[in-house]
Amino acid sequence: MAGAGKADRTAYECSSCGHREVKWLGRCPACGEWNTLRESAALPKGAGKAAVHRFTVPLAAVDPADGARISSGMAEVDRVLGGGIMRGSSVLIGGEPGIGKSTLLLQIAAKAVVSGRVLYVSGEESAAQIRLRADRLGLAREGLELLCTGDLSEAIMALDRLKPGLFVVDSMQTMVAADAGAVPGTANQVKYCSMELSSWAREHGSACFLVAHVTKDGSLAGPKAAEHTVDVVLMFEQSESDVRFLRSAKNRYGSTDEVGLFTMTEAGLGELSDPSSVFLVRRDGSAPAGSAVAATWEGTRCLLVEIQALTVPGKAAMSRVYSERIDAARVARVAAVLERHAGIRLSDQDLYVNVAGGIRLAEPGIDLALAAALYSARSGLALPAATALAGELSLAGEVRPVARMRGRARAARALGFTRVCGPADGTMSSTATPAVEDPESWEALAGIVRAIKALFGNQGSPAGGSV
Question: Closest by alpha carbon to 120, among 102, 132, 138?
Answer without folding.
Answer: 102
